[in-house]
């Protein structure tokens, strides 16, 4: 069951990554969104979630050209 912490942390992380891509790492918006993502991740951790709840393992992929 997904508690609100997980979707919030995922959304904050995606927004921060998008801002870093579009605006660059030095932009104030990127800094704000990275801080929000870190806060959301910390709240999820404090609520008892594990990192793997936020970042599930990806299935194994075959190497390209193989």
Features:
single chain; 66 residues; mainly alpha; 0% strand
Unreliable segments of 5+ consecutive residues: none
Number of helices: 3
Radius of gyration: 15 Å
Average pLDDT, rounded to a whole number, is: 83
Q: What do these coordinates show?
A:
The termini are far apart. This protein has helices at 5-23, 28-46, 51-54. It has a domain at 5-49. Helix 1 runs antiparallel to helix 2 (28-46). By secondary structure, the protein is mainly α. Helices cover 64% and strands 0% of the residues.
List the topology elements.
Elements: H1 5-23, H2 28-46, H3 51-54
Helix pairs in contact: 1-2
Short account of what is shown:
The chain is an all-alpha fold and 66 residues long. The chain has helices at residues 5-23, 28-46, 51-54.
């Amino acid at each position: 069951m997904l508690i609100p912490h997980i979707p919030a942390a995922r959304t904050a992380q995606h927004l921060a990554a998008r801002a870093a891509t579009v605006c660059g790492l030095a932009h104030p918006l990127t800094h704000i969104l990275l801080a929000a993502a870190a806060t959301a991740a910390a709240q999820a951790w404090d609520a008892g979630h594990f990192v793997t709840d936020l970042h599930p393992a990806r299935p194994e992929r075959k190497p390209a050209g193989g």
